[in-house]
């Protein structure tokens, strides 16, 4: 069962922000308190997937759009804003720690990478993303855990300087 069209708050989708229509629509439904029920469906059949980005530049642009819209989240998404800030702070602190003391920095990233691998593996199993256990899956998760913090830091550092477009809408 999908979202009924009359329920979609078209007037509050923020066309001036590249991407994020889904997030702003959910925020408006939560704010309205008109009996709209917004929640989590813990069922792999409800999962939505999208094609992967075709290049590193496209992936970077996508993440910059996502990061830029998080600064515009309305009050109804205050928890999501806090998560975005915590993720940014953890990655920036971890990167700074590498420059302050290499040993502590490496220990920080090792512990964080282990936690990331364990969590991602659990979610991948829950949603059927890994059909069977293989060494290749484990290696891919480890590489992701090691590269991801630097990708996040790069995204955060480039966000103020890189203008991106989405469906013909430029970033403001």
Which short descriptors sum up this protein?
mainly alpha, two-stranded antiparallel sheet, 172 residues
Please tell me about this protein's structure.
- The protein has a two-stranded antiparallel sheet.
- It has one domain (5-41, 51-164).
- It is 58% helix and 2% strand.
- Strand 1 and strand 2 form a beta hairpin.
- It is globular and about 50 Å long.
- With 172 residues, the protein is an all-alpha fold.
- Helix 3 (78-100) runs antiparallel to helix 4 (102-126).
- The chain is built from five helices and two strands; from the N terminus they run H-H-H-H-H-E-E.
- The longest helix is centred in the middle third of the chain and has 25 residues, at 102-126.
- The two termini are 35 Å apart.
Q: Largest beta sheet, briefly? A: 2 strands, antiparallel
> In angstroms, what separates the terminal alpha carbons?
35 Å
Total strands: the figure is 2
Anisotropy-based shape: globular
Low-pLDDT regions: none
Describe the strand arrangement of the main beta sheet, using strand numbers: 1-2
Radius of gyration over C-alpha positions, nearest whole angstrom:
18 Å
How confident overall, as mean pLDDT?
77
Number of domains: 1
Strand content: under 5%
Order of helices and strands: HHHHHEE
Number of helices: 5
Instruction: Name the structural class.
Output: mainly alpha
The residue fraction in helices comes out at: 55-70%
């Amino acid at each position: 069962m999908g979202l009924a069209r009359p329920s979609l708050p078209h007037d509050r989708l923020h066309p001036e922000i590249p991407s994020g229509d889904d997030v702003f629509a959910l925020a408006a439904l939560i704010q309205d308190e008109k009996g709209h029920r917004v929640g989590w469906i813990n069922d792999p059949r409800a999962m939505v997937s999208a094609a992967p980005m075709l290049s590193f530049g496209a992936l970077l642009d996508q993440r910059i759009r996502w990061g830029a819209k998080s600064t515009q989240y309305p009050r109804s998404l205050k928890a999501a804003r806090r998560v975005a800030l915590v993720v940014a702070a953890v990655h920036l602190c971890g990167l700074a720690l590498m420059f302050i003391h290499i040993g502590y920095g490496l220990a920080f990233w090792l512990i964080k990478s282990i936690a990331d691998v364990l969590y991602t593996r659990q979610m991948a199993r829950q949603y059927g993303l890994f059909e069977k256990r293989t060494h290749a899956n484990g290696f891919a998760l480890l590489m992701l855990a090691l590269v991801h913090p630097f990708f996040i830091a790069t995204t955060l550092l480039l966000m103020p300087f890189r203008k991106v477009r989405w469906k013909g809408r430029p970033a403001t």
